[in-house]
Amino acid sequence: MSFFLLLMISFSFRAEAGSTILHPAVQALDEAGLPVKSGRKMSEERSCGKCHDIGFIRSHGAHFKGSTKVACLQCHAKPDSASEVLMVNTLGAPQNANCGACHGISGTAGTLEIPANYGEVDFTEPSGLQHYGLTLKTGEIISSQLPSVSALNLKNKAQLDSPWDVHAARGLSCINCHYTFNGPKMAGSRRKDLGHLRFDPRMVSLAEYIRRPDHSFAPPACESCHNAQIIHEMIPYKERHLAVLACQSCHVPELHGPALQSIDQTVAVPNGKALLRFRGVQTDLRASAMNTRYLEGYRPFLLAEIKPGVGPRLAPYNLITRWFWSSESKEVSPEIIRAAFSVSEAGLFAPEVLRLLDQNGDGTLDSRELVLDTREKVEFIQARLKTLGVKEPLIRGEVSAHPVQHGIQRGKTVLRNCNSCHEQGSRLEQSIVLSEQQPFGAWITKAAGQKGPDFEVQQLRVAPLFSGLYIFGTSRSPWVNRAGLSFFLLTLLGVIIHAGARFIASRSAKACELPTTPVYMYSVYERLWHWLTALGILMLIVTGFDIHYGGKFLGFFSSVLAHNALAWVFLANAFLALFYYLASAKIRQFVPERKGLLSNTVAQIKYYTSGIMKGAPHPKKKTAEEKLNPLQQLTYLLLLNLLLPVQVITGILIWGAGKWPDITATTGGLPVLAPIHLLGSWLFVSFLILHVYLTTTGRTPLANIKAMLTGVEHLEGDSK
């Protein structure tokens, strides 16, 4: 009883850094139950099994599956302990240094530097990328230190005054986020099998937890601790951004650690491993220590995660390409490849291989020369592989995506510029370079079983796919742009041709001044409504196209705010106008009479196509009660009853995408709404061009515009 009491006391005194102050003294025993002072390997069943259910622990976690066999002491003893005999007296909860020894560089003590054995692992093993894997896969370094005081040769090193990871700087340890599911401290907050419960107060006792701690660690989400909704006031459409953007998309703007770009196993290297190439790392021809290489860093690539029931979400990733020889759908072993290159124990290549690959003739092969980038080189090695019994050897490439989840930044280092995503050529459109050097004729695909982000492999580059997402300023609907621009250009061309024909006809026609009568045509409200509407449409078009093209004119954020404000003013003006025209019964002037509509329309078309060239009078007499001709009435009927409602409805749904996502989703979401809204904008632009031009078809070119300014129009002949 006193023994378990001591254990409970020890866990209750757990420090924030993840260490346990107290732990009973445990004697390290071998499989025979004898002390390991004899030099035999420690048995976990004998040493730890008295208190802990070793079988349960191994079956409930990823640290003891397949080829991965992690010993208890690797995680629960001080990393700097010299021997098992000493380690058993320093047992506790895993510290960051324990996790970093396998998963990535943590820099918990002393000056942070890249270990000498960084990258010297066997990538043919399933666990190959687990040694410093986090840093190798993405360049993430989890440390509270500043990059500026590290031993790394970083670009703009003196200016890097933010910690490698803000969570590490705030004193959080790995196990604070990656906690055990049945730990008494956190167990009640998550229940996979009871999704309807936000918190389950039932939990295992401390004694049971010590006996059987679940080592299936929680995959944490930022939302587990942070409520992003109550901050981020600088973000417009906050709900929408948080729904489709992972926090790391902005909070990990750049990574400075040496992340893998490619693993080339098509060639043999002296150390017998694989030829590694890194992102943002200056190539050193003599492969010097990583600490001396110039690390420029890289910007993670935003890819769309497709999660069932959640929808697409943009998150940062690094892409790693692995090149290898295959034969009959099986990978050729490194031993055979090494034999094909005839690499000796001393790391020397066969003379014929050296002659083929040694481009500078210095008698050695550097990393730039170790690549099969020509047909001659590939066929030469293929022939040597065939002599070793390999059937139809081919070079293949596989691309794997690795999520960026650490290296969190805050403050001034976080991405805040809208144009980082919302403009052409932004980080969303960048083509991702897979490898600086590619074996000749290699067949490249996604890695087998690749899940998560959506992307398309295109030889040495990857094109991100954003299915289900529409990003203003970046996304394009080619058919909409082509159709809208074509309609606009046809309208403009028609106006130019018609204006030219009128100009030529006016030079030969005889001027004939007819008496006119002034008529009060437009009331003050009609004129005010007209000019407010015209100005509103014009500004909506300007700001709308500025949003579509990434804020080139006013800036993206300013254009969004202005567009929204103008839209609400325009909508209010439209409702007031509707009330006015209904209350005054003047709305009748917009409705064409069915009787004689066809003949009157044909007559109006004939007038615009030929009569106006000859100076013929308007076929429809204009009065204060009937201002519009049949063509104008039909145009306004379509404009006010079809085009305008479509623009208003799609605009409101786009604006409300973050507020009512379910309603927007039922219409197809932004990928459907935004192109429709854009097409409507092109039609409005075309209408404005035509409308402004037709104002010149009055008694004089400026007569109609003057009338809309003063309210008085001079009509030819008797207006009664």
Topology at a glance:
Blueprint: H1 2-12, H2 44-47, H3 54-59, H4 72-76, H5 84-87, H6 96-103, H7 133-138, E1 153-154, H8 166-169, H9 174-177, H10 206-211, H11 238-244, H12 248-251, E2 259-264, E3 275-279, E4 294-295, E5 301-307, E6 311-327, E7 330-331, H13 334-341, H14 351-357, H15 375-387, E8 394-403, E9 432-433, E10 443-446, E11 453-458, E12 461-464, H16 478-508, E13 516-520, H17 524-548, H18 556-583, H19 597-614, H20 630-655, H21 661-666, H22 670-694, H23 703-710, E14 712-716
Parallel strand pairs: 1-4, 2-6, 8-10
Antiparallel strand pairs: 2-3, 5-6, 5-11, 6-7, 6-8, 9-12, 11-12, 13-14
Task: Please give a structural write-up.
With 720 residues, the protein is an alpha+beta fold. It has a domain of 239 residues: Fumarate Reductase Cytochrome B subunit (Up-down Bundle), CATH 1.20.950. The protein is built from 23 helices and 14 strands. The strands form three sheets. Strands 2, 3, 5, 6, 7, 8, 9, 10, 11 and 12 form a ten-stranded mixed sheet that branches. Strands 1-4 form a two-stranded parallel sheet. The longest helix is centred in the C-terminal third of the chain and has 31 residues. It is elongated. The termini are far apart.
Observed structural traits:
Fumarate Reductase Cytochrome B subunit; 720 residues; disordered N terminus; 10-stranded mixed sheet; alpha+beta; elongated; single chain; 23 helices; two-stranded parallel ribbon; 37% helix
